[in-house]
Amino acid sequence: MTDPIFSLMLMGILREKYYVWDSKAEIEFLKPGFSILSAEFIISSEVLKEIYAATESGDKYFPQFETKVVDTKGVVVARIKRTLYIRKKPQFRSEELKNAL
């Protein structure tokens, strides 16, 4: 239900300039879900600023994202933690940084 969502969202935001891969996932199942389940996925502008700053020179970055899966009554049935691998592709790194490498 939640596997590709954060990575697909970031692929759409960061476009072809970045590698975006799933790296790790943790799921904490709290109780069975007997109704329709839903989850909200948010990537804030602050997180995007962190990604841009951390990857400008081509460094690897491993941000973590968390979301909750809830039933129709709003009861949390699972907590999800996703760790992504993000890295700016070499051809899109700044010239000064490429020359320093």
Overall description:
The structure is a single chain. The chain is elongated. It has 101 residues and is α+β, with helices and mostly antiparallel strands. β3 (64-70) and β4 (76-88) form a beta hairpin. Helices cover 27% and strands 34% of the residues. The protein has helices at 5-14, 45-55, 95-100, and strands at residues 18-29, 38-39, 64-70, 76-88.
Keywords:
alpha+beta, 4-stranded antiparallel sheet, elongated, 101 residues, 4 strands
What's the arrangement of secondary structure elements?
Blueprint: H1 5-14, E1 18-29, E2 38-39, H2 45-55, E3 64-70, E4 76-88, H3 95-100
Antiparallel strand pairs: 1-4, 2-3, 3-4
Short recap of the structure:
The chain has 101 residues and is α+β, with helices and mostly antiparallel strands.
What is the averaged pLDDT score?
Answer: 93
Strand content: 25-35%
Report the sheet with the most strands, covering strand number, pairing sense and barrel closure.
4 strands, antiparallel
* Strand arrangement, major sheet: 1-4-3-2
Amino- and carboxy-terminal Cα gap: 41 Å
List the uncertain runs: none
Shape: elongated
- What level of helicity do the residues show? 25-40%
Total helix count?
A: 3
Q: Give the C-alpha Rg.
A: 16 Å
Structural class: alpha+beta
